[in-house]
């Protein structure tokens, strides 16, 4: 028997099922915890101007379940508590942008059979733009100086993550 703690009905969202089941809540919690732990473990390279956030390898998984965008945003909040710049940008702006990136990634990937690579590419485009803007606001660093490196590093991380999820899919239905 599957309990339905949350049921959001919105047929106008292109046929996206907005129902959150108990299993989804478990996956959200696991996704958030895994993201936060990976940010913490790799903290020296997860922050600052030239960040290489290895935790991002799990983001392409959002291609299979939109609810994982919630887990991603929660993981960003928890992970960013360890940021040397923890404040409104790290604890509010970036989680919101992470959720938006995850939802856009899911919606676009849905048109391509829930493709991990599409989700990863979308997220790895929105997040560098957001981080570059944030760094500009915090430190007046020019966006053109930070965006190229962040864009390349995010694309690499998400490509690796998408590849890992494709390998996992060969043996397991994890979602």
Describe the structure.
The chain has 175 residues and is mainly α. It has one domain: Orthogonal Bundle (Arp2/3 complex 21 kDa subunit ARPC3). It contains six helices and two strands. Strands 1-2 form a two-stranded antiparallel ribbon. α3 runs antiparallel to α4, α4 runs antiparallel to α5 and α5 runs antiparallel to α6. It is globular, with a radius of gyration of 16 Å. The two termini are 18 Å apart. The mean pLDDT is 90.
Labels describing this entry:
mainly alpha; 2 strands; Arp2/3 complex 21 kDa subunit ARPC3; 175 residues
Short description:
The chain has helices spanning 22-41, 43-46, 68-80, 88-110, 116-139, 143-171, and strands at residues 6-7, 19-20. With 175 residues, the protein is mainly α. The longest helix has 29 residues, at 143-171.
- Rounded to the nearest angstrom, the radius of gyration is 16 Å
User: Any idea what the shape is?
Assistant: globular
CATH class: Mainly Alpha
Distance between the termini: 18 Å
Rounded mean pLDDT is: 90
CATH architecture: Orthogonal Bundle
- Structural class, from helix and strand content? mainly alpha
- Order of helix and strand elements from N to C terminus: EEHHHHHH
Count every helix, treating DSSP H or I runs of 4 or more residues as helices: 6
Fraction of residues in H or I helices: 55-70%
* Strand arrangement, major sheet: 1-2
Return the CATH topology. Answer: Arp2/3 complex 21 kDa subunit ARPC3
Parts with pLDDT < 50 across at least 5 consecutive residues: none
| Number of strand segments | 2
């Amino acid at each position: 028997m599957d309990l339905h703690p949350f049921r959001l009905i919105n047929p106008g969202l292109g046929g996206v099922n907005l129902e959150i089941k108990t299993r989804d809540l478990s996956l959200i919690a696991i996704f958030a915890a895994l993201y936060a732990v990976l940010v913490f473990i790799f903290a020296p390279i997860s922050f600052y101007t030239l960040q290489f956030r290895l935790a991002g390898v799990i983001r392409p998984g959002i291609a299979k379940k939109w609810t994982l965008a919630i887990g991603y945003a929660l993981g960003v909040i928890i992970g960013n508590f360890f940021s040397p710049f923890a404040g409104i940008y790290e604890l509010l702006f970036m989680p919101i942008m992470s959720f938006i990136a995850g939802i856009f990634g899911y919606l676009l990937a849905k048109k391509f059979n829930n493709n991990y690579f599409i989700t990863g590419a979308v997220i790895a485009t929105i997040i560098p733009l957001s981080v570059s803007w944030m760094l500009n606001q915090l430190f007046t660093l020019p966006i053109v100086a930070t965006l190229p490196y962040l864009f390349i590093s995010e694309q690499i991380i998400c490509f690796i993550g998408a590849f890992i999820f494709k390998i996992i899919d060969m043996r397991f239905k994890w979602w």
